[in-house]
Specification:
By secondary structure, the chain is α/β, with parallel strands linked by helices. The protein has a seven-stranded mixed β-sheet with strand order 2-3-1-4-5-6-7. It is built from eight helices and seven strands. It starts with a strand and ends with a strand. It has a single domain, classed as P-loop containing nucleotide triphosphate hydrolases (Rossmann fold), CATH 3.40.50.
């Protein structure tokens, strides 16, 4: 059985994949990305990621194909880190982390990431911004209709970190440290933001 399970969700450009992979490396954990699962489904169906996302709006079986893997993660030995929009819903016993970011900053990050393979990346930050907001609304609608959950409700999470003004290494250090505290049974503050290079929490 898994020892520690961390589920990390967040908008495009918030840093969730970066944090998830760093935590995986630190802990020697098993890593699962819902995005990777979706890319594999798209490949098997002969679709692009954009075409698959559009199909998901009317075909719930695609989401359920991805979701079915989450419950099986409980049977993994050792620690588990999941990079996914909705894994927290299927693994309520996990340490549930949400990363948030200002949309304009996210658009700049996405366009500046030359290694990113994403249907949200566009020719300019402005175009990326609008595509990103459209995708966010599509996902909110889909998850609300199919699962009855609000993916932006902070009550669903144990930790919410605003990464807008923070460097990736600072976000990684904060999340890793608070995860250790959480699993050790120590109380943690839930909502954090970075101001002038320093972390502050919201009481």
């Amino acid at each position: 059985m898994a020892n520690r399970i961390v589920t990390i969700t967040g908008e495009l450009g918030s840093g969730k994949s970066t944090v998830a992979k760093a935590l995986t490396a630190q802990w020697g954990a098993f890593y699962h990305s819902a995005g990777s699962a979706q890319r594999e489904i798209a490949r098997r169906r002969g679709l692009t990621i954009l075409e698959l996302n559009q199909l998901e709006e009317t075909d719930p079986t695609i989401d359920r194909e991805v979701d079915s893997f989450f419950v099986s993660l409980r049977d993994k030995t050792g620690d588990v880190v999941v990079d996914s929009r909705l894994a927290w819903h299927f693994l309520p016993e996990s340490f549930k982390v949400r990363l948030v970011v200002a949309p304009d900053v996210a658009a700049l990050r996405i366009n500046g990431d030359t290694g990113r393979v994403s249907e949200a990346a566009a020719s300019s930050p402005e175009e990326t911004y609008h595509l990103m907001l459209a995708r966010r609304e599509s996902e909110k609608k889909r998850f609300r209709e199919f699962y009855g959950v609000d993916i932006e409700n902070n009550d669903n999470f144990d930790l919410v970190v605003d990464t807008t003004a923070a460097r990736p290494e600072a976000v990684i250090a904060l999340v890793a440290g608070l995860a250790e505290d959480y699993f050790a049974g120590r109380p943690i503050h839930k909502i954090w933001t970075c101001q002038n290079g320093a972390w502050t929490f919201v009481p």
